[in-house]
Every structure is written in C-alpha cells, then in structure tokens.
Design a protein that fits this description.
Layout: E1 5-10, H1 21-35, E2 39-45, H2 52-55, E3 58-59, E4 67-70, E5 73-76, E6 78-84, E7 89-95, H3 97-100, H4 118-136, E8 142-146, H5 153-160, E9 171-176, H6 189-194, H7 212-222, E10 225-228, H8 235-244, E11 248-249, H9 257-269
Parallel strand pairs: 1-2, 1-8, 2-7, 8-9, 9-10, 10-11
Antiparallel strand pairs: 3-6, 4-5, 6-7
Helix pairs in contact: 1-9, 5-7, 7-8
Amino acid sequence: MKKAKVLFVSQDITPYLEETYIGKISRRLPQGIQERGKEIRTFMPKYGCINERRHQLHEVIRLSGMNIVINDVDHPLIIKVASIPSARMQVYFIDNEEYFGRKATLCEKTNGKNFDDNDERSMFFVRGVVETVKKLGWQPDVIHCHGWFTSLLPMYLKKYYAEEPLFAESKIVVSMYNDEFQKNLHKKFTEKLSFDGFTKKDLKHIAEEANYINIQKQALEYADAVIQADETLNADIEKAIKKSGKPFLTYKNEVEYLDAFNEFYDSILEEVNVMS
C-alpha cells in the first residue's frame, strides 16, 4: 500500500510566534506523524509579526503569483517557506500584504480586539492553502485543521472544490480547541461567502449569527472526523460533536496523542485502503 499523506493546516505554529497550545501541537504533531512513516505538508498564515530573517523565510516564486477573489476583489497570493532542520520538515506560509502585513495575528496587540476583516482573512487563508496544494500536485489522504481560523476549509473542500480530483478521497479531520473569540465575525460574512457560490443552506450554522460556536459547527458539518484537542470543550460544541455521530477521538495528553492521532488517521483511511 502507498504511504499515506497528511496535510496539516494551522492558525499558529511554534516557533514562528509566541508559544501557544495550538502552536505547540501544530509543531510537534507533523514531525511525530512523519516519524511514524507518513508524508506531511504543513501550512500557516504569514502574519506580519513573524520575523522572516530570523526564521529564514523565502518566497517560492513558482507557487506565488495568482490572485484569489474575496468579496469580489482580487488579492495577490504570496507563498513563502521555511525549514525546521531539527524536524526535517518545511512550513509553507500563506501571505498577502493587505490581510497579513500588520504586526499582529488575529487581534490588536494593544487591546486584544479581533480584527474586523478576520472573516476575509480566513477565507483567503484556506483558499490559499488549497490553491497551493493544487500547484504542488500533492494529493493528501488526510487534511487536519487546527484552530477556528481554519474552520472554513472543510466546507470549501466539500463544496467549492467538490469537482477537484486531487481532494476527492481526502478525509478532513478537525481538532476542536478552546480558542474562543468574543466578537462576532463581520455582519456581511455570509454575503461575502455567497460570491464563492455558497447558499444559505450551505451556511446554515453562521447564516443568523457568525459567532465562535457557529463557525465551529460549520467546520463540524463538513468534516469527516473530529478530535478533542483540549481537556474540556464548550458544552455547545460537545453536544454538536455527539449529535454529528462522526468518528471522534477524545482528549489525549502529551504522552499519548502522537500515537493516538496516527492510529485515528489510519482508522478513517481504512475504507479507502490507504495506510502507511
């Protein structure tokens, strides 16, 4: 059997930002899965606060250059890459001056207020990942999403890219964290998504209110499997996971999770006969 390929998409990866729980998992997990015999690719946003010189980021010219239309406006996509030599892994960065040029991640440094355009930034990021993987011609068997900022990826893959053969058999796993934001996303969020052909039915969880709980439910709706990444989760999200009936991996501690995640990937791939 062929070697399984796992695509990791995260809003945060250590050591490029100050260490967070999501960042630490998103750094250790790809390395651990690679060491267990699978091929990996890893993506995150290229926030303006990332020190490109220190981390030796460089633009990948052959992957850059296309435009992505968000809210009926063209936005240039820039792809950068850096290596973590100790892990024998590369990280690809999705960049755009308007969305990611600011010296912060998802909120203002001074007051912690979420950026008003986080909805568009998320749309650009997930589409940028998919378009780059298409250019690479790399067919993932598992796509594992980390952080609410990646929540639109399952829907884009199942709807917008439904006819793309590269992802026809990809299994989408979402890790649910306690990474809650307080302010709702932009009031015209669903209107912006409609430019990409999404209907109100497609967007049923966020159509009325684009809050944290609903965007996580939106991810869950189109995912193939779910992992509880934090020891405790929001009660509404726990209920939604149980109601979905989808393959579910409960919380695993730092000693257990690498083997547990690897086995979980294998279990959801058995039906398509792809194993490491």
